[in-house]
Structures are given as structure tokens and as C-alpha cells.
Write a structure and sequence with these properties.
The protein is built from five helices and four strands; from the N terminus they run H-H-H-E-E-H-E-E-H.
Length: 180
């Protein structure tokens, strides 16, 4: 199947805000901050950057996986690399209070929302620049646009839901081709 009916999960400020909220715990752990909260204004501020980062990641993931599906990103390889490097504004900082335990924190100039985009871009650099990228696969379940890291030799889909959908489609295709 094609991907003609794919919905952009980051279209508009509300979905971007929901994505930020869903990422809050992960970003909190990475940043070393005490609390994290995102406003709709934060979402509006970083929406374009987040969509550009997603498109850059999709472009490079499609290349790494030799993805046979039609491209969802209009970016070239060079544009994608430049975009990730531009958005990777987060930097690591050593936090070590006198008499306390050392820890690593991430900081970025600007808001926590900007830090979120920066951290994802930094993780993309670590991922694509390291050996893990060779385990990246495109999920070939119909209407799925996702990629996943293959951690088990028999894994073929991004989620069990996509696996079930693919098995149902295969069964249906077999039934209709035999004329049963």
C-alpha cells in the first residue's frame, strides 16, 4: 500500500504541544532540570524547527534503510545533515556541587522547548554517526511511515499493531488471489 492517506502528526500548534508534553519526562531526565512545563506559546515557537527536524530525520532514515516507500520529506541529503547540525544547539554541562554527586545536564540557549529540539538533534547525530544506524529499518506495514531499530533478528515492524495489520493484509491478499 501507499502512504497517500498519511496524517501529519505535527500539523498545527496543538499536536506539537501534545508532542512536547509527551516528551517532558524524557527531556527532564536528560536536562537535569527540576521541573518542565510547555505552554502553547512554546509549541508555536518551535513548531517549524520540530517539523524541519522530523523531515531531516526521515530523509536520512530513508537513505540508511534504502526505504522503498515514496519519500515523505522533500529534503536532500545535504539539507537534512545541515538542518540536524543547525538544530543541535544543546550542549552537555557538568553539574557537580561541592560535596555532592556529579551529574551531566544538557542546556540550550532559550527555552526548554528549544532544548527539547536540540536534544533530539544531538541524539540524531549520535545515532547516525554511530554503528546503531545499521540496525535501522523501515516499517513496511501498509500506511506506516515509521522506522525502528531492529533489536531482534525476526522483528519486521515498528509495533505489534503494524505486525498484525501486515499479517491480516497478507491473509486477505492470499484469500483474494486464490479466488476463495
Amino acid at each position: 500500500g501507499g502512504r497517500g492517506d498519511v496524517i501529519d502528526a505535527l500539523a498545527g500548534d496543538q499536536p506539537v504541544h501534545a508532542w512536547l508534553a509527551a516528551m517532558a519526562d524524557r527531556i527532564l531526565a536528560e536536562s537535569g532540570a527540576q521541573t518542565i512545563a510547555f505552554s502553547l506559546e512554546d509549541a508555536q515557537f518551535i513548531a517549524d524547527d520540530l517539523r524541519a527536524l522530523r523531515d531531516a530525520l526521515r530523509c536520512l532514515a530513508a537513505e540508511v534503510t534504502a526505504d522503498p516507500r515514496p519519500p515523505t520529506s522533500g529534503m536532500t541529503h545535504t539539507q537534512a545533515v545541515t538542518m540536524i547540525n543547525t538544530l543541535a544547539r544543546a550542549r552537555a554541562e557538568l553539574v557537580w556541587p561541592v560535596g555532592g554527586e556529579p551529574s551531566r545536564a544538557a542546556t540550550a540557549h532559550g527555552s526548554q522547548a528549544r532544548l527539547t529540539v536540540g536534544l533530539i538533534a544531538r541524539q540524531a547525530i549520535d545515532f547516525f554517526g554511530g554503528p546503531e544506524r545499521h540496525r535501522l529499518r523501515a516499517c513496511l506495514s501498509s500506511h506506516c511511515v515509521l522506522y525502528f531499530v531492529k533489536e531482534h533478528p525476526r522483528r519486521e515492524w515498528c509495533t505489534p499493531k503494524c505486525g498484525n495489520r501486515a499479517r491480516v493484509k497478507r491473509h486477505y491478499d492470499r484469500q483474494t488471489s486464490t479466488g476463495a
